[in-house]
């Protein structure tokens, strides 16, 4: 396997974990949890889901720029000679990272505090804000994946 193919595969796997996890949470887990769990159990579930999923997102957040820059240098010999779609993909990654950090640093601690205090209305409000941010991030991730898919072989 060539260095580029190995780097590309690792990059793709990291993106699949992050974007696929958001898709599963938004489209499958959230509606199922709303359908069968009362608010206290649902909020506790989400605290645990975020704890587990964000370990994987942190791995993706680290792997993606390392492999992305690696592919950039292996394929285009640097940022200056890379096509515009590569610049767009990098910008979308930065936007996704900013939204993830907003959830991780600002919203998630607030959700944990509300659940620990059994303040279910506040917890529900925070979870709603997190849901919107994850929804925006999911859209960005799907756009980014579509751009990548339109450029086979990067």
Summarize it.
This protein has helices at residues 3-36, 39-76, 84-116, 120-149. By secondary structure, it is mostly helical. The chain has one domain (3-149).
Keywords:
single chain; 154 residues; mainly alpha; 4 helices
Structural features, described:
Helices cover 88% and strands 0% of the residues. It is mainly alpha-helical and 154 residues long. The chain has one domain.
Which spans of ≥5 residues are poorly predicted at pLDDT below 50? none
N-to-C SSE string, H for helix and E for strand: HHHH
Helix and strand content put the structural class at mainly alpha
What helical percentage do the residues reach? Answer: over 70%
Tell me the major beta sheet: none
Sum up the overall morphology in one term: elongated
Provide the gyration radius in Å: 18 Å
Estimate the mean pLDDT confidence.
Answer: 95
Q: Proportion of β residues?
A: under 5%
Number of domains: 1
Number of strands: 0
Number of helices: 4
Amino- and carboxy-terminal Cα gap: 16 Å
Which helices and strands occur, and which strands form pairs?
Blueprint: H1 3-36, H2 39-76, H3 84-116, H4 120-149
Helix pairs in contact: 1-2, 1-4, 2-3, 2-4, 3-4
